Amino acid sequence: MRLYIANKNYSSWSLRPWLLLRTIGIPFDEVALRLATHDDSDFKRTLLALAPTGRVPLLIDDDGFAVWDSLAICEYLADRFPTRGMWPGDRQQRARARSLCAEMHSGFATLRSVFPMNIEASLPEVGPRVVAENDAARRDVARVDSLWCEQLDASGGPFLFGSSFGIADAFYAPVASRFATYAVPISGPAQAYADRILALPAMREWAEAARAEHDFIPDDEPYRTRPELV
Ligand SMILES: N[C@@H](CCC(=O)N[C@@H](CS)C(=O)NCC(=O)O)C(=O)O
Question: Is 35 found in the same domain as 100?
Fold first, then answer.
């Protein structure tokens, strides 16, 4: 399998299936492309030759079959490797995990725009100020905090649905990184969960590679100002 991803510093959608595969221990080849939104870039040319969206993440299976969009990729992986516990075994817990992933996938617009993933940055003054001044940001942060805490209480942790890392954890992993970059104030149990995710070997591997990129994308590039693009 080949997984196409973009800059590790910025590409939160790429991180989700990458972290899932790495943490669960499924081998894959990684193809990293420099993030670009214009059609005559390597990024677009390469991706559009493989799938219609021209976006990452993109998974190409061994037989050449293409799966695009982070959520569809994770679903495909869960189908292809059904014994690896990517979704909870219990039907209702599985539905709850899917709800949380869908909530992340289609929501949290303010959180994504005010706290873009930027692993190499350290901006601890930003989080407390934004949360104090911006009601929508404060609501998004509070929702993530409470959903993490409720799930950890219900499952007993250490991951959202119990003892094994799954798709729901992968979906919220970039949020843990954003909270760290901007020192977003969250509750003790939520912070402990975020720290646990950031300490995963695969998460550290991704962060180390992100910090080694030194490929800083100007703030006025479309994908730095349009949160839906990263
Ligand atoms: N909903 C998609 C979002 C994918 C996405 O926006 N990827 C960004 C990089 S993280 C991208 O390819 N941006 C380039 C573009 O939109 O032209 C997913 O979940 O995979």
Answer: no
Point out which residues pair with 60 in neighbouring strands: 2, 66
Structural domain count of the chain: 2
Which DSSP letter does residue 159 get?
B
Mean pLDDT of 44-71: 97
pLDDT at 229: 57
Same domain, 196 and 110: yes
The pLDDT tens digits of the residues spanning 7-35 come to 999 999 999 999 999 999 999 999 999 99
Closest CA to ligand 1's atom 15: 37
Nearest to 55 by CA among 63, 67, 202: 67
For residue 91, pLDDT beyond 90: yes
119 vs 6: CA distance, rounded Å:
13
What is the 25 CA–ligand 1 centroid distance (Å)?
24
Of 9, 13, 67, 77, the one to substitute when testing ligand 1's pocket (max ligand atoms within 8 A of C-beta) is 13
